[in-house]
Amino acid sequence: MSEHAEVVKPPVTSIGVVGWLRQNLFNTPLNSLLTLATLYFLWTVLPPFVRWAFLDASWFTPSQVCRDGAGACWSVITQNIRFILFGFYPYDQQWRPMTAVVLLLGLLFYSRDRKNWSKWLGYAWVVGLASMGVLMAGGVPGLPAVESTKWGGLPLTLLLSVFGLTAAYPLGVILALGRQSKMPAVKVLCVVYIEMIRGVPLISLLFMGSIIFPLFLPEGITINKILRAQVAIILFTAAYIAEVVRGGLQAIPRGQYEAAESLGLNYYLTMRLVILPQALKIVIPPTVSILISAFKDTSLVVIIALYDVLKTSQTVLSNPEWMGFSREVYIFLAILYFLGCFSMSHYSRKLEMELSTDNH
Amino acid sequence: MALNTSRTDAAALHEKPEPFWLDPKKRAVLFQILVLGVVGLIAWYLISNTVANLQRQKIATGFDFLGKEAAFEIGESLIAYDASNTYARALVVGALNTVKVSFIGIVITVILGTFIGIARLSSNWLISRLAAAYIEFMQDIPVLIQLFFWYAIFYETLPSPRQALNPMHGVFLCNRGLIMPVPEFHPAYRYVFLAFVAACFLVWGLRRWARKRQDETGKTFPVFRVSLGLLVGLPLAVWMALGSPFSLNVPELRGFNFRGGTTLSPEFMALLLGLILYTAAFVAEVVRAGIQSVSKGQREAAMSLGLRPAQVLRLVILPQALRVIIPPLTSQMLNLTKNSSLAVAIGYPDFVSVANTTINQTGQSIEGVALIMVVYLFFSLSTSAFMNWYNKKVKLVER
């Protein structure tokens, strides 16, 4: 009874590579045309770029070799990497900002997994941030003090972002709650604050921090430049976070408030136990995009002459020896920021999926 | 009598008078007074410090400086300006430059962003992947770094005028910027413009008439095609009737620089390019989300009603997609305008840059920063006024 049913294979043109190509690249005449045009465009752009960026590039050479070569000069990065990353921080002490950055990245990496979220992680963050501060500033036995005017490069960028975001988040939540409040005075104050900050560019706040803020303080008291920029960034980011959180608060159905009230919870407990946990969860994706733009916005401090990683790179470029290699330096910085932002947005998508599963 | 007893009953219920901190209303009033008091105190403290500091450093206050001679040159200006003009005029020049770069930037960004957003949804794998990569990359790189990058391309990579790149006849690209031909002005253009304005009015009237007729008789009228014909045809007819005058002012290399045509400075080009390429990525995401928000059933239902594809798009898909697209799109336009303030970093004389120079010269930082904030607040508030108007309008369209 071995009757062989003839196995009819699908036509070659609809499976495998050929089928995929037909379905995704050449399914209509217009698409075929577009595909060919795109391929031609890539063919004219990519090979010269690859030749410039990799094949002809110089990686660890003095600047003269770069000037004679035809390709990209990545040496401008590799030869000056310590200045780009750490700025004017004393050369023999640069292991300290290095350790601080590694500590921060390690903490971020460990906090990535939700299984590790606990009270201890919170304490670890407090201890971690404090020891980062001590490492940077010094002034304890064994670590000579380093003035904050000498801080620069990557640690400064990360410092401004991390402290800015951690301080702006609670402030933003408070502002959002104030805006939803039934008390007219509180509500008006919060609305005016949020709308005013959101209506002006960050640069005007940074100007305010760097030029006007010293006038606000009584004679003889000065606050250092980094802190002033930090305050401006916090005030700016908080307004945006407030608007995002407001969106979350508005999405919570009335029944949740009424249920909490009928349980006898007061305002504080209602918010802490019922409303905020739900509202903040809804707004994770938009919050992350605020965090990403806040991270990108720290690059603006270059305009008020703080030595963040962008400014240190530009300082390298103003050195006659390395003048004229701006493209390479900016591409390097773009990759640096891209890695930071991309990992954040990637993480937010992952977190969003994890959190949404328990709703099914 | 009865009234009295009920009152005493009520009083008897509260044997002790309720303390005021247990009454939510009184507590709210108290809390607000407290908040206002604290805010007021902080404000008073800051203001009194500022006044004392200003007096001690002998810095003038008030806006008198606006009438004084500015004594600095501005690289590019839409209105006549030189160093002997007042600060007020310099600031107007800056504001106009901001409006110029923002307006051109917004127009190109919306067009480019729409294309990329549609490309992202293309069934062509290659194009959709490329669009996705563009969106992800551009969104994740700070706009300031992009500005610096394009500026470096202009002043560092592009050749001097003598070796300028010449991609098209009369168009030159070099480290002095982009030089291109412009049509020369002719008195006839005034009438062509008037004809265009007249055509706009005609189209408006035609639309009203066509809608009214359709409501009454059910007959449709090819409004779109006739309008397009009017808008293009009427000015064209006037232009041809006046002898179709047209001449281009083509730039030429003379010595070390170009004569004729119009020059877009490297600062302007870098700013425009950076803002457009950055914001277009966000606009593309907005457009993509808007198109995806209209469910497939809507298109199928519209087609089953017998509407033609163009009508399906115009009457069913677009009104619904635009309701989702317009609000975030406006905020992207506003973002572009606010980001144009980064011009100060590459030396394009926008409002912030001129105000910054003013602050440095006069020392009146409070007034300068206040001016910056007021100008941008004006842009933002007028945009949100438009948004509220628009939201009301689309709400009426809803059932």
TrEMBL record, chain A:
Q: Which GO terms describe its cellular component?
A: ATP-binding cassette (ABC) transporter complex
What PROSITE patterns does the annotation carry?
A: ABC_TM1 (PS50928)
Q: Which residues form the ABC transmembrane type-1 domain?
A: 154-348
Q: Where in the cell is it found?
A: Cell inner membrane; Cell membrane
Q: Name one GO biological process term.
A: amino acid transport
Q: How does it sit in the membrane?
A: Multi-pass membrane protein
- List the InterPro entries: AA_ABC_transptr_permease_3TM, ArtM/GltK/GlnP/TcyL/YhdX-like, MetI-like, MetI-like_sf
- Give me the segments passing through the membrane: 30-50, 95-111, 123-144, 156-178, 199-217, 229-245, 329-347
**Which keywords does this chain's UniProt record carry?**
Cell membrane, Membrane, Transmembrane, Transmembrane helix, Transport
- Which Gene3D superfamilies does the record cross-reference, listed alphabetically? MetI-like
Give the UniProt family note: Belongs to the binding-protein-dependent transport system permease family. HisMQ subfamily.
The protein in question is named General L-amino acid transport system permease protein
Q: Record the organism.
A: Desulfacinum infernum DSM 9756
TrEMBL record, chain B:
Topology with regard to the membrane?
Multi-pass membrane protein
Cite a single GO MF annotation: transmembrane transporter activity
Supply one GO CC term from the record. ATP-binding cassette (ABC) transporter complex
Q: Which residues cross the membrane?
A: 28-47, 101-119, 131-153, 188-206, 226-248, 268-291, 369-390
Question: Is the Cell membrane keyword given for this protein?
Answer: yes
Q: Which GO terms describe its biological process?
A: amino acid transport
Q: What is its main location?
A: membrane
Task: Quote the PROSITE patterns the UniProt record gives.
Answer: ABC_TM1 (PS50928)
Q: Which PANTHER family match?
A: AMINO-ACID ABC TRANSPORTER PERMEASE PROTEIN YHDX-RELATED (PTHR30614:SF37), MEMBRANE COMPONENT OF AMINO ACID ABC TRANSPORTER (PTHR30614)
Q: Which family does it belong to?
A: Belongs to the binding-protein-dependent transport system permease family. HisMQ subfamily.
Q: What is the name attached to this protein's record?
A: General L-amino acid transport system permease protein
Origin organism of this chain?
Desulfacinum infernum DSM 9756
The opening ranks of the lineage are:
Bacteria, Pseudomonadati, Thermodesulfobacteriota, Syntrophobacteria, Syntrophobacterales
